[in-house]
Design brief:
Radius of gyration: 20 Å
Number of strands: 10
Shape: globular
């Protein structure tokens, strides 16, 4: 991921065709804003108007996300459910990068008019535990059946002979979404270990639980809650940081 910082702006190109972000001051707003989503911030906090802001975040988005819908969602406006789900899924992909910069993007409708209430909890953090290295976790979800081991902090192993979901989920217009494109790219990278019947012919090593969910069942839900041990206890409950 390219991260050039020059003068008053920082530009990040996200991996896996997830688009681009430019963080700049208010004097550096792009001339053509029709193809980007502009969000105004005061420090790391999203605000509704330019007059409240000291910087602007300019997002160049994947083709299947409308910039106007993206901005509207984050400003707390009501959108069709399919658009909300698409945008939430996209934010799940890029929030790990934004978190490193101190930004947590959620819809303002989740926090407006609640200034005295406790802030919403941060996204769950999970810790790798060596005690789980030999513990099999099972997937039986949406056409996917698998046995998975978390063997290192950034290494999970999907065992030989498991079944992948066969049908690629599509957007309502019949197009393939960014999340599905990422999953298909993963499957292509491991094509030598995936048979024509969508069963694995060798063990597959991946870097994260997120990648496991994409490869097995095209994501769309929290994989930490889908992987379960033989007693039904989720990987999430085994590893979530208190």
């Amino acid at each position: 991921m390219a991260n050039p910082f020059e003068h008053n702006r920082l530009a990040l190109t996200f991996p896996d065709q997830l688009g681009r972000l430019v963080i700049s001051d208010l004097l550096d707003i792009p001339d053509d804003i029709s193809t980007v989503a502009l969000l105004y911030c005061q420090g790391a906090c999203l605000v509704k108007s330019k007059s409240e802001a000291d910087r602007v975040l300019s997002f160049s988005l994947p083709d299947d996300i409308d910039p106007a819908y993206f901005t509207a969602y984050l400003l707390g406006e009501t959108l069709p459910a399919n658009q909300v789900n698409l945008i939430k899924a996209y934010l799940d992909q890029i929030n790990p990068f934004l978190d490193r910069l101190g930004y947590t993007l959620t819809s303002l409708s989740d926090s407006t008019q609640k200034p005295t209430k406790q802030k919403a909890p941060a996204k769950a953090q999970h810790r790798f535990s060596k005690t789980l290295v030999d513990t099999p976790f099972y997937v039986d979800y949406d056409g996917a059946k698998a046995e998975v081991y978390w063997v290192k902090r950034q290494e999970l192993v999907i065992k030989k002979g498991v079944s992948l979901k066969q049908e690629t989920p599509l957007n309502k217009d019949g197009s393939v979404g960014f999340s599905q494109k990422f999953a298909l790219t993963l499957r292509q990278e491991h094509a030598d270990a995936i048979g024509s019947d969508f069963k694995t012919t060798a063990d597959i090593q991946l870097k994260s639980v997120n990648e496991v969910g994409h490869l097995l069942f095209f994501a769309g839900t929290n994989a930490w809650l889908i992987l379960k041990d033989k007693t039904g206890k989720t990987l999430d409950s085994h590893t979530i940081a208190n």
